[in-house]
Amino acid sequence: MRHLRIFVAVADELHFSRAADQLGMAQPPLSQAVRRLERDLGAELFDRSHRQVRLTAAGMVILDEARDLLAREERLRMLAGRAGDGGLGTLRAGVPPDTTVATLSTLLAACAEHSPGLSVDLQEITTEEQLRLLASGGLDVGLVHQPVDVTELRLGPEVRVDLGVVLPRTSPLARLPEVGLAELAGHDLVLFPRAQATGWYDRILDTCRAAGFVPGRLRHASNPEFLLALVHAGHGVAFDQGPVARKEPRVVWRPLANRPLTQRTTGAWPSGRSAHPAASHFADLAADVLARDRTATPRGHDRARATPEPRRPWSVVYDGSG
């Protein structure tokens, strides 16, 4: 390719000295490069028998092909650079099952805006499964609920959201502006299955016991709709961020006094050279989206940004089948 660039420069100038000046090199090595190219191709490219250098018939045929090859080489380098920066290819990203449709839509739209050439393979996966896939190479980046074992992982900005309690609308506690954990004593508790996020599950129960709330019975619900149905039917109370519960008129959401339960969500990806170049950028975008959609603040990371001004929700609809 270097010899082709030299050939094109001489063909444009039809003068060896001017071509050498254009390329910033001495004339002797330039002439040698042209001679080597001619030997490799088995044809003379320039007619040097006159005072002015001219292209031979072979040179005129080769010139267009040489320009095309050089243009394709430039595009190849550009594509390689974009892929190396994470702007092309496919990013396999995991999100927790409790991620809302609005958050998924906004996150996909943000990825498309910032990296239009990148295909994001978004998968709904529990925190524990994400950790396993990140370790085995089956996932490039994930959004996990802390606390988790961060061995061999890099973490992005942490987003914190205070949880409240979901109660049946008929509960006497529903009349309170906020509810203390101790006031939930005697109630059953509806939680996500422990296998989804072991560390966060145990943290919730430890916090409840320390505050005087020991659930009479634990019920499990992976689906937010099923969780709300159990609460409405009087099978327990639940902890939630608020937006989903507020859409169900048969239950109420109340803040917890002193904010004892804070859900911490963090982007995580493998450390080392095997990491996908777009993983950290995805973690940053996800933190911004979560902070905006949940009115939370990303913290604990040097790339964290201040909470953006509230904006209208994206009108994009997320197709969960993809």
What is the topological layout?
Elements lengths: L1 H12 L2 H8 L3 H15 L4 E2 L6 E2 L1 H28 L4 E7 L5 H14 L3 E7 L2 H10 L4 E5 L7 E10 L1 E5 L20 E3 L6 H13 L7 E3 L3 H9 L4 E4 L2 H4 L4 E5 L6 E9 L8 H15 L3 E3 L23
Helix pairs in contact: 1-2, 1-3, 1-4, 5-10
Notes on the structure:
This protein has helices at 2-13, 16-23, 27-41, 57-84, 101-114, 127-136, 198-210, 224-232, 243-246, 279-293; strands at residues 46-47, 54-55, 89-95, 118-124, 141-145, 153-162, 164-168, 189-191, 218-220, 237-240, 251-255, 262-270, 297-299. A 6-stranded mixed sheet has the order 4-3-5-12-6-13, sandwiched between helices. A 5-stranded mixed sheet has the order 9-8-10-7-11. The chain contains 10 helices and 13 strands. Helix 1 crosses helix 2, helix 1 crosses helix 4 (57-84) and helix 5 (101-114) crosses helix 10. It folds into 3 domains: 2-84, Orthogonal Bundle (Arc Repressor Mutant, subunit A), CATH 1.10.10.10; 89-160 and 263-299, Periplasmic binding protein-like II (D-Maltodextrin-Binding Protein, domain 2); 164-260, D-Maltodextrin-Binding Protein, domain 2 (3-Layer(aba) Sandwich), CATH 3.40.190.10. Helix 5 (101-114) links the parallel strand 3 (89-95) and strand 4. Helix content is 40%, strand content 20%. Mean pLDDT is 83; it is low at 295-322. The relative contact order is 0.14. By secondary structure, the protein is α/β, with parallel strands linked by helices. The two termini are 42 Å apart.
